[in-house]
Amino acid sequence: MQIATWNVNSLRVRLPQLLxxxxxxxxxxxxxxxxxxxxxxxxxxxxxxxxxxVTFSGQRTYNGVAVLSRAPVTDLVTEVPGFEDAQRRVLAxxxxxxxxxxxxxxxxxxxxxxxxxxxxxxxxxxxTWVAAEARxxxxxxxxxxxxxxxEDRDVHDPAAWEGGVLVSPxxxxxxxxxxxxxxxxxxxxxxxxxxxxxxxxDYRMLGFxxxxxxxxxxxxxxxxxxxxxxxxxxxxxxxxxxRPSDHAPVLASFDLDETTRDxxxxx
DNA sequence: ATGGTAGTCTAACTA
Length: 267
Hints:
The chain has 267 residues and is of the alpha+beta class. The protein contains six helices and 14 strands. Helix content is 24%, strand content 25%.
């Protein structure tokens, strides 16, 4: 079972790249962010033809999340309980025995901005919701664009970023609180990784060519699922293409067989 | 000290 997340920064622009990527990376579940499409404009037919069911919560111009899945979907949620929000940033569903929560965390713009306060309030509400989902679902994956680099090793130049959004103590603490409250695990760090591994590079200042990136796209798994995670990697190939998204996809593979070859339960 | 690029939609906002 392969699961991935990709902030495509406009699904309309990136659809050809997405279809090509799915051909060579036939993942079972793909969480998308920043689709920037109203539901009526979602490219249902093209993705169904590629072998995926589509579930989406869209908005014109900004935000928008979607999940592509090979297996049927149930129990769709597109609102954070008790949190009024016109912005389409969350999508939860169940497929293949897994609870999937796709998140597009607010960027926050600047630490002294109204948008940063919104980011913190949003994270607070989402943490409460995800904690409830974690209690209800043993096999939970929370993935997406978190717009938070968890640690300094996830930042190309921590000194240059100090005092900025994506790395500030306030939002990092919110992320750590979410992990502590839910037991969720950042599976990327469960495996040996190349040094300076990032998932997002600014379009400006030759960010990608100089590997001036941040790792802000995460796959979090519940303890029961993290135990079954067999790998996690960032695929930077799409970031090299003409007219790329500023984010690269992140993939994780899970071994969900209930038993080993000799029939004994695996743990 | 500021700007650089991309997407949406042609003005300015968001990232």
